[in-house]
Write a structure and sequence with these properties.
Structural class of chain A: alpha+beta
Strand content of chain B: 15-25%
Order of helices and strands of chain A: HEEHEEEH
Number of helices of chain A: 3
Shape of chain B: elongated
Oligomer: heterodimer
Largest interface: A-B, 49 and 48 residues
Helix content of chain B: 40-55%
Helix content of chain A: 25-40%
Distance between the termini of chain A: 60 Å
Shape of chain A: globular
Structural class of chain B: alpha+beta
Distance between the termini of chain B: 60 Å
Number of strands of chain B: 5
Number of strands of chain A: 5
Chain lengths: 142, 207
Amino acid sequence: MPVRRLHLSLDLDGESRGRQVREVVEQLVRLPWVRGSLIVAPDGFVIAAHLPATVAVDALAALAATLGRELELGAARLGHGAFRTALFSADDGALLLGTTRVGFLVIVADPLANLHALRGALHDAMRFVEEMWAPPVAAAGA
Amino acid sequence: LPPARAEFRWVLERDPQHPRALLGVARVALEEGDAGACRESLQQALHAWPDFPEAQALLDGLAARPVPAPAPASTVRLLLRVDRLQPPETARGLALARADGAVLTTLPGPGHAWATVERPARVLGLAGATLARAGLGPLRRVVMEDENEAVFVRTDGEHLLALAMPPGTDIAQGILQLHRLWATAGHELELATAAARGRAAGRRRAS
């Protein structure tokens, strides 16, 4: 009996905010030192991803979402306000994670990456997603 | 979390093998600190859907070497004097702990050790599993930023050093301080261990 394969990621087309979110990911992977990037909803649902073929997207997204939630809950538990970003550095590279209105933005980078520059890029991308997905301001007098 | 769990349960009553509902129940259990219920739900999902990478990854994450919660302040046994490490003046907190949760030194005092070490200790196992999935190797450093502070963490799997700084601390400066503190702590630990061995040998000779 063939094994049932799950495909749970979002696939949006057209001039939508989903497309713009995918564009954020594409912009990030064009930066030097960046191997890949993804945006994952807090429940692990992959919104957009561009990762090397050697990385299993769904598995990484599931763990990144769980890690992001743990960081959010940890900040809340200590009364530290909102969690913003985290940087995890390893022997063979680094992983940056930031929180946005739609989910967690992740960057996978080379070991010798300029982390200061990448952190700035992550903040810019987070701000862009925030602006895109912020609720519309009510019209004056409405 | 309870409303989310109720929603997932509602789905599972109608479709007991619904993958996202099973995964959702597992996530809720994990956020509530119930690793057993989380594992059970993931195993149920993998039984129905053997090729379910998200469930498998979370199960692997659970199996990653858990870092126990640091000891309560009352059982903290300070091995090093924190002033020997010369923490930066702007440091809000500093703690060195072993992987088993024993706190070896802390700033400002034992009562704060738990708060400084707890959060990094909780995420280390999960972060290590995430890095492994991304093909990045063993975790070495963590920088966590929230509205109130930036926490710089260094680990080698046996020890964990956490340095809490004000928000907006320059990341390069924070990492430099972390490296300096890590090297000093390693040196001081060697001295403390050698001194303890010397005392033990003296007691044996005396007896």
